[in-house]
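Possible regression after last week's pipeline update?

I re-ran a chain I had predicted before the update to compare outputs. Posting the input and the new output here so someone can diff against the archived version. Not blocking, just want to make sure nothing changed silently.
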Amino acid sequence: MKLLIIVTIVVIALLLAPRLLAGEIIPAQDAADRVKAGTAVLVDVREPAEWADSGVAAPAALLSLSDLRGERTQWKTFLEQNKDKELILYCRSGNRSGIAANILEKEGFKVANAGGFKHWAGAGLPVRQIKQD
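New output (post-update):
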């Protein structure tokens, strides 16, 4: 009986963990309004192949989570230039953008999670296509 309870708790924790990491997801239109007002910048944290496959939000900076976790080749300058703005992040589903938001929030940045690209595109907000190198 104890084993069944432990297994149940572990399964529930594994199912909830991505949502807990993602934090609260703001509506796409709210993200667009903040970007348009100039108080925030939008960042797509997916990988380059994903940008090419599905397109990206038109105003988004393209900065992968792997670069944020790694050498920050692209993130370093971007963060210096946007340290006073809110960073609104999105990915495919909202999980990786939640992970990136947690990393950046711990470093003192103001962040928000806009969830997945599907939320942006589904709201009828502008998108653009990216060519893969």
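Follow-up from reviewer: compared with the archived run. The helical segments are 2-22, 28-37, 48-54, 65-69, 75-81, 95-106, 117-122. Marking as no regression found.
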